[in-house]
Design a protein that fits this description.
By secondary structure, the protein is mostly helical. InterPro entries: DinB/YfiT-like (IPR034660), MST-like (IPR007061). It comes from Nonomuraea rosea.
Length: 185
Amino acid sequence: MSEQPDRWTKATVYADMWADPDDDPRNSDGAAPDGELPTLRDFLSSYRLTLLMKCEGLDPEQLARRSVPPSTMSLLGLLRHLAEVERDWSNWITSEDQLPSLYGKGGDFEGAVAEQTVVDAAYADLAREQAALDAMLAGHEDLGEHVGKENIAVRELLVHMIEEYARHCGHADLLRECVDGRVGQ
């Protein structure tokens, strides 16, 4: 990228935040979740929302912009990738037939093109796959329970999901800053 955008944030209280604390939808009423399972679910929910916040307000071209050539990574690609990953995690839980890939090998990033229909489909795919996985996980309250063909513990699966979103939210921070200069947590 030859021209770097000026850094900016909507936050007025802290210059390094994405939004002011009172406007941040990830902030709760101050009560922390009680127990390991609610805590893990809360962290996952927060990271899922963070990714969506990093993509907010951008048009298809901005979402599809590959900011660090030759990488194929873009914010739109991250949305598609995480929809694919959510589906893959669903496959980890079940012992049934595996769901097919949404985009094919490498298609999550390669297919992230600047078209409104692709953007709309990416958001719909992500929401659908998150809801499907959440419904599957609702039937497994015991974190020590082992599920699926791989016999993975529910706790391990949730921690892995949080790690995946956290890592990609870090990528989203950098991608968003390259797109329009917006910074923050």
